[in-house]
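Minutes, methods subgroup
Present: GH (chair), OT, SY

1. OT presented the first of two proteins processed in the latest run. Sequence and structure tokens recorded below as shown on screen.
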Amino acid sequence: MTRNPHRFPLLLLALALCAAPLHASASEPKAWSFVSGDDFAKGDLDGLALHPHDGLTVAPGLTRTEVDAELIHCWVRDGKRLWLGTGVEGRIFVVEGDKAREVAQVPAALVGSMVSDGRGGIYAGLVGKGEILHVDAGGKTETLVTLPDVQHVWALLRHGGELLAATGPGGKVFAIDTGSKKARVWAETDTEHALVLFEDKGAVLVGTAGSPMLIRVQAEGKAQAIASFPGAEVRSIARLGDRLFVAINGNPDVVKLQQLRATPDRPGKDKEKRATKARAKKASGGGGKGAVWARHDDGQLYQLFGSPVGLLSQIGASGQGVVVGAARGGRVLVGDLHGDVTTLFDLDEGAVLGVEMGPKGPTTLFTGRSAAVYRVGGPSARAAFTSEVLLASGVARWGRLETLGEGKLLVETRSGFSNPANDTWSAWQPLKNDRIQSPAATMLQVRVTLASPDARLRELHVHRRLLNRQPQIERLEVKYEEKGKVFRVNWGARDPDGDKLGYVVTYRRRGSAQWLMLHDRFYAKTSLGLSPKDMPDGWYEIRVEASDAQSNTPPESHVVARISKPFLVDQGRPTVVAEVKDGTLAGVATDASSRIVRVEVSFDGEPTVLCGAADGVFDGGQEAFELRLPPDLLKGTHTLLIQATDEAGNVGVTRLVVGGGGAK
């Protein structure tokens, strides 16, 4: 009987429904959900502020001025002029209006610090060379002083008519008389680097690196530690009300000149490269942890919040909260006094190295990777959230996309098969009746534009369902077990979606079109015994068919099959006919189902002797054999036992008596 090729999947499904309830499938609908600040923070925030519990809102607008440098390490404002100190090549710029122009180059890799001279010029401390320069309003540069045993001038501060310089290594603070150009040690910190100077209530606070401490210097030579911190460096200090706020980094962020490298592709050069922004920013992250600590004037000290983006740079404080730039990740964070952290800005550049504060919050931002100045003010020209590339475990069909929020929200998606997204991805498409229109793929990105000033995105849920993939039968073997007198069928299968599998096992005689069932239900095990008692001798094949019908609807379920190597069922013994003539034993061994593989003879119970095939090879179901008998067997009467073995291991025996006048 010829089997109906369409019948088997239906049979599997029927057996599956009878055997067990439906199993949970990896291809059942699932969702990516964005419900917290941590969820949204993994994406790209363009013109958005991110609250840890209350979603995304439109951030203040930014106006960008590009600076032809790798990073802005320090800045000082003098009236309408904004001075910038940069690296990797040490240069000094002036920003007036929306233009930045270079006014001086310095003999060091980095301008470490700046302060106004009060006459339209600046003093600049160098990193990599213990010099302090004077640059006048026209850009004329001269060396003010070279400090002894100093490699880095990290901070400058005008105090009491003199210029203070925080230096390293050695952790000394020098006082410089700008008139006489003479320098002396003003305070010693007994640390590796004096990194920060901050004037506070008539005293000078020094933040250190190596052993991170906050040291108060009330007068020359009178230094007192008022706080110490876990980590590696005090990066910045700010005051708000009755407490000081201190940015602490957990690994040495003191610049090592050999680590300064230029950024090949700077943001702003090519707007099409914005798609790779998240990857570039991720590459700039890591390398340590940052935290903001608070010290009350009564001495209380505690960590206010840890940075969600690693190392921190400059800190500021206003009624808006504690504002800090992220030295890794390109974000500006605002922490409230309860420790909640809002991402206020997420810039294309990899680092925010400076924040200028006003009464209501940040007014200017300074960046690295690469250098730019951002002025804060007015509404944001663009406010959009772009998710990270969302990766499914297989090809997925996209479903509904749900948003929770207020105001005007415009939602688009695109899909593809590469990370990061590139030109092979589909174009951005809007939703239709809240359903995603992007084609099935393994990856998806979501973009939500907050298109009104009052818009807020609180939650985002993206539904998907994997396209069902077919199972695989990875092995199938049939072995005869002598002890149990059965053929043991073993197989192994897996489903890439984790679906529960069921099996139908059938067999047939080789050459037959009809497969016969070996069980009466859907089979769940991966081993089965097959008795040969009711099977005529011959060559057979086993077929194992695996189905995921218990976990999928009939149109989407899969059935796969694998056929074993042929195996022999041979329960009949070979027959042997033999005679002795002219001193030679000759005969024929015959088996109805398989090849004769061996013929041997025992003389009078002695160990057997092999006989050779008459044609030289035992390779057929009927084989002639012969053996020249030893001369002593021609005398007297002897008994010969002749055994023939077939390839199934069955043995046929005949007995022959020779001598005494004949053979029988």
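2. SY then presented the second protein from the same run.
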Amino acid sequence: MFPEYDVIVVGAGHSGCEAAVAAANLGARVMLATMNMNTIAQMSCNPAMGGVAKGQIVREIDALCGYSGIVTDHTMVQFRMLNRSKGPAMWSPRAQSDRMLFAAKWREMLEANERIDFWQEMVTGIVVKDGRAVGVRTGLGLEIPAKSVILTNGTFLNGIIHIGEKQFGGGRAGERAAKGITEQLQELGFEAGRMKTGTPPRLDGRTIDWEALETQPGDEEPGKFSYTDTPVAKRQLPCHIAYTSQEVHDTLKEGFDRSPMFNGRIQGLGPRYCPSIEDKIDRFAERDRHQLFVEPEGWSTCEVYVNGFSSSLPEDVQYKALRKIRGFENAKMFRPGYAIEYDFFQPTQLRPTLETRLVKNLFFAGQINGTTGYEEAGCQGLIAGINAVRNTRDEEPFIIKRSEGYIGVLIDDLVNKGTKEPYRMFTSRAEYRILLRQDNADLRLTPLAQKLGLEGAEQRMHRVKAKEEAAEAISKFVRDLSVEPGQINRYLESIGSQPLKQKVKLHSVLLRPHVSVEGLREVVPALQEFLHGYEPEFVELAEVNMKYEGYIERERERVDKMTRLEQVTLHDSLNYEELKSLSSEAREKLSKLRPRTVGQASRISGVSPADISVLLVHMGR
């Protein structure tokens, strides 16, 4: 009935969709198995992509020919570039999407790929022979053969939904949990754990007093995620800001004795940086209010997402508290918030390719690895999809270094350190974040996509080269052009900068704080004329490169030093127990995690600089 697929992807969330696309774009024959074809790429939580560090990940996915950025650009209802007041390493794109259009666009793009087949049924197990994954088993007892399998089960593995004292099985509201896979993996020797996440209530926007809320519009000149020729938003919907109050907090506390979080029914670890409203009230008791972001779900629906009010309290308590929020006095609820507990597997059981150590050709990606967020899931799926194909072809693994992308930071953190709570990406996790900006993801990663042979990378490289050449040309022009005090002193004084006393190169003026290319082109006709015809993104790259040249150079020097350690390979057969000069903790951790390089070993918790010196001596360095 079924051919042997190169890759079977189990689960069609953000991770599964990117995994299927990546494998198919390498020419592989793919099956995407899902319990429900109508929930492909569902935005289970908030209808938004990007944000701090997450926006960089979406741009990196796009630079590697993934679809998340393209889908977002086609379906966004609002765009904002966050952290514009900070340095460019912190700038992060974020977009609200139309939830229904987002899922529909993803499905449309997946179905347009002839290399991807679909199967709607619950997968209950993996077919394993001689220590290799060779297919999947379904609830109907069917066996579908494959050269590799990628599990992207999200919150569905033995998922339990909690609303107050009520609990029931489910992987998402209205959808059943997946059974059988966890138990089989544990029998194979995998270590499983439980995690928790939550979602807020959805409200009827027709019953909200919008005048009582603060308006949060999108950017006047909206940007986009994809480096391809996707549309720029011509119109946008506003978001709004509301606030809780002490009265709201007191009302919520009335239900704490019935909260599954406080009475011990929830065992899973919840996300530290996206806590439920009851958790915020408990942990930050000194605060008399919390900010809520009231986000539209789409163009043609009145459904509203109350970001910041995630809760598993009884529905009557949620409803009563919501109605005490200014602007929500007459609000009607579409559905209450809930918490969901689900199985995950410690990611230290994976190789940096996301292949499991215990079973060859079996890959894990997304929330099954203990992460949270569409963006974190999507990038794991993409890497797993690429490596699943390369594995079956006996090709070198594809691993993004920490100095090459946030994707590399995320996966390196997971496989070397594991996680005790849902892992979320932040700019602070990346030690080379000046190099890993949202504006240069294509320059960093599209050449790698071309080398891999990903479909579409060749065409993308034309734009990458044009962008690099434009940045160099603009930089040269600015360095060579001289300006007189009379030309720009009025501009300098208007921004509080010291006026010129003599003719200088324009480059020296640009390096001053608060001076921008945008401001200079208004008063320097030669610059305005030269920049005419260059894309704004090209000009922005040139400006960032010039203004932060010293910082970028120092960061590259640090990367070079670390690269030397990454080039010292540790063989899989190395017996760490024989290296008695290593600390006992280092021997234990290195034996368990089997790092590929000394650089990777240096990032394992419990391995000290002294242990690294021992390894270098042993390797003849």
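Chair's summary of item 2: The domain at 567-618 is CATH 1.10.150.570 (DNA polymerase; domain 1).
Next meeting: continue with the remaining queue.
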